[in-house]
Amino acid sequence: MLPVKQRMRDGVTRRDGAGEGVRLVGIAKSFGATRVLAGLDLVVREGEFLTLLGPSGCGKSTLLRIIAGLEQPDRGSVSIAGRSVDHLPPAERDVAMVFQSYALYPHMTVAGNLATPLEMRRLTLLERLPVIRHLSPRRRRVMRGIMAEVRAVAEALRIEALLDRKPAQLSGGQRQRVALGRAMVRHPAVFLMDEPLSNLDAALRIEVRHELSDLHARLGTTFIYVTHDQVEAMTMSSRIALMDQGRILQLGTPDELYDRPASLAVARFIGSPSLTVLETVADGGGGIRLGALRLPFGHRFAAGTRLTLGIRPEAFALPLGPEADGPAFSARLVRAENLGAEWHLHVRLNLPGEPSAIVRLTAAEHEAARACGLMEDPLTLVLRARGVHLFGPDGSRAEPDRARTVMME
Amino acid sequence: MRWRACLASALSHVMLATGAVLMLAPFVWMLLTSIRPAEEVFGAVFNPIPSRFAGGENYAQALFASNVPRAMVNGAMVCLGILAVQLATALPAAYALARLRFPGRGILFGLVLFGLTIPIQVPALPLYLALAKTGLLDTFFALMFPFFLTVFGLFLFRQFFRTYPEEILQAARLDGMGEFEIVWRLAVPAALPAIGAFSIFSVVAHWNDLYWPLIVVTSTDRATPPLGILAFRDAETGGNYGALMAGATLITAPLVVAFLVARRAFVRGLTMTALK
């Protein structure tokens, strides 16, 4: 991006939006005394599937409504495809939204629901008025075109058999599809989705998740998707913006959020079961002390600084074959859960305060460990390099790049 | 235990039946009188069932020798005129009060509630004077004018629209509907039961109204149904209660029939919210 002044001088303001789906600058919003969004900046690339992920009340839905124009920000500006839309009403922003409740028009048929956005755009006000509309010969012609498009969208979503039904006669999954169809008929520049899967049962949720991914790949349109479900976010997104208390904690690909969390809060939110958090102290030589263990990290904190270590469940291993040489803890097994393909061991580490931790083993590892007698109490746990994160006193990531190599040795 | 439940049930039925008989008795009497020969109405012998069927002559007189048919046509015009303007104003206003955020909304709604407490008798005199000054007395407009704005309807519809899901309205705005279009494309279809219930209230009230027509109408050409009956009684038929009751039956019938047909929708309209 060129600086603003230069863009104005070059007279290329209209082309700034190339490759840019939605740009948010300094968006702030309060409801009464409650601050919901605190001056938030975000650029959504054109054609990407961006997920706003966060706990309920973090401001993600409000942000979506501000993009749609249903809510006015107190400060900040929104542009879509390079065009400022701050002064535009929702209908003229070229966005379509799928609501959590689907928000279908209850007294209209499915066909009517799908046709409405097109009618609003292609018919004049007179042609939409009750009774009078039947006087227009043009209306019939336009409606025929609209119905053809409605049928095409219905076929793409496999709901063509439902066109004559009313929303009350549809199942949750069918309503969801109709809501999606109503957004699709308009070919908007941006799709906005507000927790569209949260009212579906678990099996259907997985199915629709795949369909949404396919749809995104097929349409190539920008999707902005709001959810509190990290599985939805991790599986569908090109990038995730993890939000909390009206701020973006981290913006990145699902891999980046999982493998290089920018802060302890991000590391805690992403990943299930949650990572094990241990309080530790810097030793002055770039390492940390954990009980009798010293782990080298190559960080720059002074000796005695309080640091936090986060360990993913799969970063623990049992001393089998090649893993046997890493830094090791002993631990007491509290409970073992069999999930079929993997095991979750709930353990208490043999460190001051006996902190609890969760260990994830594949079924194969578990079986091998049992065969070697490694599942006997007390367990010996080895730390792998990957999935161990160090956070500074302010909770932000302490760059552990060197740690990876050091610990591998 | 069983017989106690039976007894309680029987008792409540007896109570309800007594109430029903008390309520219906005048109407039954009206029907019986309308088919009773004139000489029997004031006869010395009390016999609930007429000795012969005299409905033909009574109804013929009410239909062809009185102002009752004319009054009914007038009544229909006045009632429908009032209802049309009431709906055209109350529905958008109620939607605005229920769903739009604008300064002064609270005060406006307070005024609506205040309006609910004022009976027609209070502004009757100033209204009459204004109509007299503008030379509009004894017109259909004068009959309808005070009732064009309905505080009751506004209140009923507002409560109804308040329960309409906000997300559907937002979806409509994203689809490009303006607020007026939301009213007629979304709010009105959802409010049909409430509109039906209100229509019955409105039509019944103005069809049966005697007070206001008596004040502003003097000519028989503009008479509404109650005025028609009044004139019929005063006219030469004087003592012919059979014909009078036939006229009363004719005037009552449309409302009773309308209610019986729309009974289910009427009850639902008063008890249901915007969406199940």
Write the layout of secondary structure elements.
The complex is a heterodimer of chains A (409) and B (276).
Chain A: H1 4-10, E1 20-31, E2 34-45, E3 49-53, H2 60-68, E4 75-80, E5 83-84, E6 95-98, H3 110-122, H4 125-128, H5 137-156, H6 172-184, E7 190-194, H7 202-219, E8 222-227, H8 230-236, E9 239-244, E10 247-252, H9 254-259, H10 264-269, E11 276-282, E12 287-290, E13 293-296, E14 306-311, E15 316-317, E16 328-338, E17 342-349, E18 356-362, H11 363-371, E19 379-383, E20 388-391, H12 401-408
Parallel strand pairs in A: 3-8, 3-9, 6-7, 7-8
Antiparallel strand pairs in A: 1-2, 1-4, 4-5, 9-10, 11-12, 11-14, 12-13, 14-20, 15-19, 16-17, 16-19, 17-18
Chain B: H1 2-34, H2 38-41, H3 55-64, H4 68-99, H5 105-116, H6 121-133, H7 140-144, H8 151-162, H9 166-175, H10 179-190, H11 192-208, H12 211-216, H13 225-234, H14 241-271
Helix pairs in contact in B: 1-14, 3-14, 4-8, 4-11, 4-13, 5-8, 11-14, 13-14
The Rg value of chain A, from CA coordinates, equals 27 Å
Strand percent estimate of chain A: 25-35%
- The global form of chain A is elongated
Spatial extent as radius of gyration of chain B:
24 Å
Parts with pLDDT < 50 across at least 5 consecutive residues of chain A: 1-17, 401-409
Helix/strand structural class of chain A: alpha+beta
Name the strands of the widest sheet of chain A in spatial order.
6-7-8-3-9-10
Any idea of the CATH class of the largest domain in chain A? Alpha Beta
Instruction: Determine the number of helices of chain A (DSSP H or I, runs of at least 4 residues).
Output: 12
Please tally the β strands of chain B and state the result: 0
